[in-house]
Amino acid sequence: MRRSAACGLYCFIIVAVIATRAQESSPVEIKINWKSSGVVNRTTLTLQAVENPFLRRGSASHDNAWQSMRDLRASYARLALWYPYPRLSVAEISPPTAVQTYWDFSGMDPLVEDFFSVVNGRPTVLCLSTIPQWMFAGTDPPPLVPPDPNVTVWNYEQGTALRDSSLREISDYYERLARWYTKGGFRDELGVWHSSGHHYKPAYWEVFNEPEYEHNFNATEYTKIYDAITSRLHHVDSHLKFTGASLAVPDQGEEFFKYFLDHSHHAPHTRLDAISYHFYALEKQPEAIETEAPNFFAQADHFLSTVSKIEGIRKQLSPSTQTQINETGCIAASDQGEGPEKMSGASIPPSYWNLCAAIFAYVASNLSRAGIDVVGASQLMGHPGQFPSVSLLDWTTGLPNARYDSLKLLIANLSPGERLVDRDVNTPEFYALPIRTRDGRRQVLLVNKTPHDVHVEFVGDAVQQLEYVDAASTGVQTRGSLTSNRVVLGASAVMFVRLRQNAQ
C-alpha cells in the first residue's frame, strides 16, 4: 500500500507511513498497529536446482554447492532435469528396437541421489521435464547428442506433435522413470528388469517445464498428456501429488489456466493438486543500477498483478488446487543476447546480485500476503553457458552470493505459521511487511528498492536487532543490543528488524 492510500483512504489504518521527508536525510516514519489480526502465513520459501556440469560429482564446486543447499533446510525444493543436457535429463536417448533398449541412468542418478541426500527427508518436487526427442514426429534426423554429458544441446527439443497419438509411448516412459526412482526399478519394453535400488518419496511430480515454449503445447494438448501421465503415476504411488502447467509467461496464460483448471476438461479422477508458473525480471539492456532497479520492480509489480488474476481463475474453477511459483529470479541482458559474450557471466556486477536478492524478497513477501503455497528461487547453480545471471552460488566455488544469503535469511524468518500483520507499506523506495512470529515476537521485513541508503524510523517501537544482506556487506550481518527506533537500509537491502515488545 502506498503512502497516499495509507494515510487518506482507510479509517481503520493498521500500518501507516507518516509524513513526508523535509529533506533527503530525514527518515520515513512507520507506525504499526500490532493489535491487528492479520493473516497466518502459509507460504513456503524454497529454491530449484537444475542439472549442469558444475553440480556433477568431481567438479570443483560440487561439494560446496550441495552443502550450500543442505544448509538452507528448504522444504518443497524442486529438482528440474532440463533439456540442454540430454544425457543428464533423458534416460532413454535412443528408441528401443525389437531386440535392444537403451536405458541409461548414469548421468541422471548421481544428481538425483545428491539432491535427495541434501533435502534430508523434507518434501520435494521432482520435475523430469525432458521428453525423449525420438518420441516426436517430423524430427528426422534427430539432433545429434554428443557422448560427453557436459556438452549443451540447445536444439535438442524439436517437434510439436508426439508420434504416438495414443500417448501410450510417453506414458510408458514416465511410468518407468517413476518406478526407477520410487519403486526400485522397472521392466523395459522387452520385459527385462532394470534394478535401481531407489525408493525416494517426492511429494510432487511436476509434468513438464514451460510447455508453451518446450514443444509449444497448447492447453488442450498439454491437458491430455497431463491426464495420461498422472493416471499412470497415480497407480505407481497413490500418495504422489502432481503439479501442472509450469508456464513461463503467465501473463499470457490466462486462457491456458482457464482450460486446465476446468475439471470438465480432464479425465475422471484426474488430480489437480497444484499449478505452477514462473517469474523473471528481465534486464532489457546493460544499464546502470539507478535505472535497472525501478525497471525490475515495475516488472515485479506487473507479475503480482498477473498472480491476482490467475488466483481469481483458480479460486473459481479449482479452489482446492495449490499454487507453486517455483522459478523466481532475474535474468541479465548478457544472458539474452547474441555472440560470444552471451551467457559468459563476465559482465555481471556485484550490485546485480543484491538487486535480484531484493526483487525476490519483495515478490516472495507479497506472494506470502496473497496466500501462495510455494515460492521458489531460481536457481541453485547457474554458470557460463547456462544462465549464470540466475545463480544463487558462485559457480567457481559453490559458495553463496547475495541472492543465496537473502534467501537463507527469508527462509529462517518468513515461514508458515507466522502472522502477517495488516498492513504492509509499499513506497517507491522501500517495502515493509510487519510479522508477528509464532512465539509472539514483533519483527518487520524491510526491502530497499533503491541503490542508495534509505532511512526509516519506527514510531512507537524500538529496534532491538537487525539481520540483513545489502550491497555493502558480505553474507548475513547481525547487529544486536540496539535501542534506537531508527534504521538505515543499505543499497538493495533485505533486512529483518526485530522490535522490542513495546506497548502501544
Can you characterise this structure?
There is one protein chain. The protein is an alpha/beta fold and 504 residues long. It folds into 2 domains: 3-32 and 423-499, Golgi alpha-mannosidase II (Immunoglobulin-like); 44-419, Glycosidases (TIM Barrel), CATH 3.20.20.80. 27% of the residues lie in helices and 22% in strands. It is built from 10 helices and 22 strands. The protein has helices at 3-8, 62-72, 86-89, 108-119, 168-182, 219-236, 254-260, 289-317, 350-370, 402-413, and strands at 15-18, 28-32, 39-40, 44-50, 77-81, 124-128, 185-187, 193-195, 204-206, 241-247, 274-282, 322-331, 374-377, 419-420, 425-426, 430-436, 442-448, 454-459, 463-469, 477-479, 486-489, 494-499. The strands form 4 sheets. Strands 3, 14, 15, 16, 17, 19, 20 and 22 form an 8-stranded antiparallel beta sheet that branches. The chain has an 8-stranded parallel barrel with strand order 4-5-6-9-10-11-12-13, surrounded by 6 helices. The chain is globular. The two termini are 22 Å apart.
